[in-house]
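A.,

Following up on our hallway conversation. Structure tokens first:
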């Protein structure tokens, strides 16, 4: 539902590019080139500064709150209970024993291989090959940590945590003894906040910082350009108009990138579930999706 509006994003992209072509064509080659270079530098600076400061901003503002919220969610048996429920949901009539799981997770020499062996022997029969069960084990980490993070954090942060674990679950060996500690689980909350949910908030800071910095720098470029370029309506030949218009395509691409960043913020803040501002709709677009993909990879 809502995917039928994919064309609106392409309309936005084409409209921005056409406007840039029109005004750049009017200015001619030289002025169009100078202003485009200025906006290009503004975009590069905004991206560089926002990328380098986003993590620091997260640590100095939201990190302690995230740790506190995660810590409030975790009890001594939270992870074990959720993981046992995950195993029982396989449909193999496993009925995992919570005490056995606790002993496994809290042991110093825990490994995925031990969990695979345990799962394949709960009922005295093998439910699958080691590789297949191993995937289920690692998916369990992602599902449980996602559910824990979702209790007090945004769905986007929770899904980001799951994605990080699916990408690399090696950190779970360090996290498991912390999160199953009977007395003190704040280190586990810190580990989750620093390694699994942090990328979500860093991304938001990066996107918002990029948009605000570009807006400020673009205004500066605009005033500098109009201050130091001649206001005389000198004659511009047809060739200069045409080449200026071509340069306008590049300028339009710069502004479409910023528009994609703005829409990405809305999609992220809505956990990618809003009727119109979501990746599913944007992926159906023809042009805009390439700018959005670039922004999403930042």
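Then the amino acids I'd put at each of the 298 positions:
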């Amino acid at each position: 539902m809502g995917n039928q509006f994919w064309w609106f994003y392409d309309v936005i992209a084409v409209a921005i590019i056409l406007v840039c072509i029109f005004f750049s064509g009017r200015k001619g080659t030289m002025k169009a080139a100078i202003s485009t270079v200025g906006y290009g530098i503004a975009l590069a600076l905004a991206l560089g500064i926002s990328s380098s400061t986003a993590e620091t901003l997260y640590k100095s503002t939201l990190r302690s709150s995230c740790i506190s919220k995660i810590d409030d969610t975790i009890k001594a048996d939270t992870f074990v209970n959720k993981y046992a429920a995950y195993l029982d949901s396989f449909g193999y009539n496993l009925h995992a024993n919570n005490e056995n799981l606790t002993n496994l997770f809290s042991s110093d020499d825990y490994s995925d291989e031990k969990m695979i062996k345990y799962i394949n022997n709960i009922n005295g029969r093998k439910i699958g090959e080691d590789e297949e069960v191993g995937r289920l084990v690692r998916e369990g980490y992602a599902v449980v940590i996602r559910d824990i993070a979702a209790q007090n954090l945004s769905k986007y942060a929770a899904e980001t945590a799951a994605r990080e674990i699916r990408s690399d679950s090696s950190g779970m060996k360090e996290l498991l003894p912390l999160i199953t500690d009977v007395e003190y689980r704040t280190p586990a909350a810190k580990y989750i906040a620093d390694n699994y949910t942090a990328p979500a908030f860093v991304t938001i800071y990066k996107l918002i910082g990029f948009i605000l910095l570009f807006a400020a720098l673009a205004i500066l470029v605009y005033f500098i350009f109009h201050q130091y370029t001649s206001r005389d309506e000198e004659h511009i030949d047809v060739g200069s108009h045409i080449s200026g218009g071509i340069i306008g395509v590049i300028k339009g691409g710069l502004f479409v990138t910023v528009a994609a960043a703005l829409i990405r913020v809305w999609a992220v803040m809505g956990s990618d579930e809003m009727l119109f501002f979501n990746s599913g709709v944007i992926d159906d677009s023809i042009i805009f999706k390439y700018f959005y993909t670039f922004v999403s990879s930042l």
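The chain has 13 helices and no strands. Curious whether your intuition agrees with the design.

B.
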